[in-house]
Amino acid sequence: MRPDHLTEPRWVRGILLFLGLAFLTLFLFVPLAAVFTEAFRKGWQTYLAAITEPDALSAIRLTLWVAAISLPLNLLFGVAAAWAITKFQFRGKQFLITLIDLPFSVSPVVAGLIFVLLFGSQGWFGPWLQEHDLKIVYAVPGVILATLFVTFPFVARELIPLMQAQGSEEEQAALTLGATGWQIFWRITLPNIKWGLLYGAILANARAMGEFGAVSVVSGQVRGLTNTMTLHVEILYNEYQFSAAFAVASLLALLALVTLVVKNFIEWRNQRLLAQGEQPLEVSPLAAQQPQAA
């Protein structure tokens, strides 16, 4: 038991706990409850009709497709960028780090306008795209590009501090034992970063499914073609179809809750391994052989 002078008074802890619960209730639980209450206000039949309506199904499919396309690209870029930044010294390294952080400081709406400036009919590449019958802005490729722009920092930003903390001793030891670059990556680097990689993927996927600002600019909000779930909710709400809007919004809320559960499970697993005195990140068999080889 900790000494009394190291603990806060009971009333202070009670006030802090009350304030925390009140904040969560007001800004998390009440909005979530309101979304599901409004979604089911007119019954299951109205709810099912809202989420199975053709435009809603098209929005759901597009949202899942965009997330499915952007996620592997985010993983590829995040691993490559983190590997380059943490394992090598090269000119322009700080500039690359700045570029990775750029989407955090630029408004998504501004990002969407940049894509319109580049690929719109009056944009820099607009005449060339029209000449070759290619369409990016106000089409699905524009939605994918905008989603990629706002999500690509998440994986890299999770991996860079993790790989910096781990250092490169294991990779160097494997290299002296004759391992190739791919062997080092698959048997040492990837197992050591797998939880950070998964954590970053979860965050990137959640942002991809919930993005609104950049997507709303480049999509043109063509109903049934370029509308994601977030855009479909806005259109339904503006048309005073409140039950349908909240029904689709409830699906987004469910996806967010699933993401939160998976994220908390990963954190709980790592904390449990640490509490048991184990290493939360798996050590590769090749690295485990290093003392014997020495």
From TrEMBL:
Taxonomic placement: Bacteria, Pseudomonadati, Pseudomonadota, Betaproteobacteria, Burkholderiales
User: Which residue ranges does the record assign to the ABC transmembrane type-1 domain?
Assistant: 60-263
Source domain of life is: Bacteria
List locations, semicolon-separated.
Cell inner membrane
- Record text on subunit structure and interactions: The complex is composed of two ATP-binding proteins (CysA), two transmembrane proteins (CysT and CysW) and a solute-binding protein (CysP).
Organism source for this protein?
A: Bordetella genomosp. 12
List the Gene Ontology MF annotations in alphabetical order: ABC-type sulfate transporter activity
The protein's UniProt keywords, in alphabetical order, are:
Cell inner membrane, Cell membrane, Membrane, Sulfate transport, Transmembrane, Transmembrane helix, Transport
Mark the transmembrane ranges. Answer: 12-36, 62-83, 95-116, 136-156, 240-262
The name on file for this protein is Sulfate transport system permease protein CysW
Q: What does this protein do?
A: Part of the ABC transporter complex CysAWTP (TC 3.A.1.6.1) involved in sulfate/thiosulfate import. Probably responsible for the translocation of the substrate across the membrane.
Q: Name one GO cellular component term.
A: plasma membrane
Does the keyword Transmembrane helix feature in the UniProt annotation?
yes
Kindly give the InterPro entries that the UniProt entry links to this protein. Answer: CysW_permease, MetI-like, MetI-like_sf, Sulph_transpt2
**What NCBIfam families does the entry give?**
3a0106s02 (TIGR00969), permease_CysW (TIGR02140)
The record gives the membrane topology as:
Multi-pass membrane protein
